[in-house]
Structures are given as structure tokens and as C-alpha cells.
Write a structure and sequence with these properties.
9 helices, alpha/beta, 281 residues, binds zinc ion, 25% helix, five-stranded mixed beta sheet
Length: 281
Amino acid sequence: MMKVHAIQTGTVRIKSAQVEGRGRGLRRRLAPFADRQWTEWLPTYAWVIDHPEGIIVVDTGQGAHLLDSGKSLHPYLRWEVAFRVDAEEEVGPQLRALGVGPRDVKQVVLTHLHVDHDGGLGHFPHSEILVARGELRTARGWAGRLRGYLPNRWPSWFSPVPLDLTAEPWGPFAASRRLTKAGNVIAVATPGHTADHLSVVVEDEGTTVFLAGDTSYNEQRMLAGQVDGVSANDDLASATLDAIKHLARTRPTVYLPTHDPESAGRLTSRRVVDDSGGAAR
Ligand SMILES: [Zn+2]
């Protein structure tokens, strides 16, 4: 069995209207700013795949620099999100505690470049780092900063390999790319939360472990097909949630969103999505 580890890099809280999108379109995207209701403190996970071809890390979690987000000039970072993380909770020190040094990590794959996913990049100077080409374009430079990304916090050496998903479908996903020679770790296109968002699938002994990034904030929202308060395009985001539901109906799937408080427990027990409750859940 391939070992997949969850590493919790601190916690985050956001507005309820970001987790559960309200209305459609621009109204849905502005709702978090008007919402005064915070979520509980949610985990932010990074994932480690202990693969025979080399260790793969999916997302790098939060960095202690995010504690300054309240001083940011960006309205989202300043008002709509809060982080808790100390230096020892960053992904690097936690990997070292597992006996994994910086040179042991072959590949780092980012689902997207939001600040709580790229915050630990500095711990991987020796790894090949893969980012969807379009996501990189969206996040870099001043245009990226205006969109709420923090390219100014990327390490000076940061020069990721642009990842182009090919038009080769994988299951219900229209575009994909194998990340290992064995073909059992696959990046799949899951556009919605960001236009070029991707997820990473680990096929392990008949079970599909789905490292979802922010396709939804938890499993219930995915099953309900409820778009979050961030996604730019309602239809695109809905189609991705539908594809994940379809996947889970056709093969045993452990669904692991970055911020779902139950993700780590589901990974440990290999608890698969059970859609028998249907949309009522
Ligand atoms: Zn995000």
C-alpha cells in the first residue's frame, strides 16, 4: 500500500459565505465581504505521497509570514481570512520530524497558488515544482498581487515547471497528466475555485485517494454540489463538483479537501465517499 500522510500546517478561518456560496456570479463572490459569520478554525493540510519512484508533496500549506495578512493592503487578505501557524508547523520542519529531508522530496505539485497552498515553498529548493501553466500566469507579478496572491513571498529561486494537462481524459475529468512512470499518481483538471485548479489522484490497491485542494471546503459541500464563494464561473465549478461525485460513484474514492476537518481521519481509515444520502446531505 502506498503511504499518504496528512501534514497540518496550522489553521485558517474564513467567512461562512466563502465555504457555502450564496446566490450566483458576482453576488456570490461578494457575499463573503458582507458576511460577519466566521467559520470555526479549519485545518490547512499539505500531503505527502511516499511513492516508490520518490516522495511527492502535494501543496505546501501555510507559512508563518501569513500572520501579517491582517496588515495587508489587499481587502481579502486583510478582512476576510485569518491564519494561525508557527514556524514549527510549516511543512519543512514537520517533514524532517518524519525523517524526510529537503533533498528527499522529488516533486512538489501545487493544486493552485493561493497563499495557504504556496506558503511552504521555501522548504523545497531541491525539488521539481509543478504548477499549472495558467495558474502561474494568473498568480505572478502585480496582476497576481491584485488578485490576492503573494508572488512577492515566493522564494527567489522559485522557477516551477509549467504543468500542461493534456486533453487525455482521466475518468470524468477532461484533462490529466501522469506524474509517475507507474501511472498511479495523476494530476487532473478541476477548474472552478481557480480557473486552472488541479487535483492529484493516487490510485492505490483499488482505492482512489483524491487530493482535492480547494475544489470544495469539505465533503458535504461537494456532495451538495454547492459552489464556494470564490469560484469565478458557476457552471465550471459545478461541473467539477459533478465530476468528483461521478468519480466517487464509479470507484471507491477517499475525498480529501485541504480544509476539511475530517480529511485526516478519512485518510487514516480510508473512508470512501458514500453518496447514498444523496443531495439531502
Ligand atoms: Zn484556494
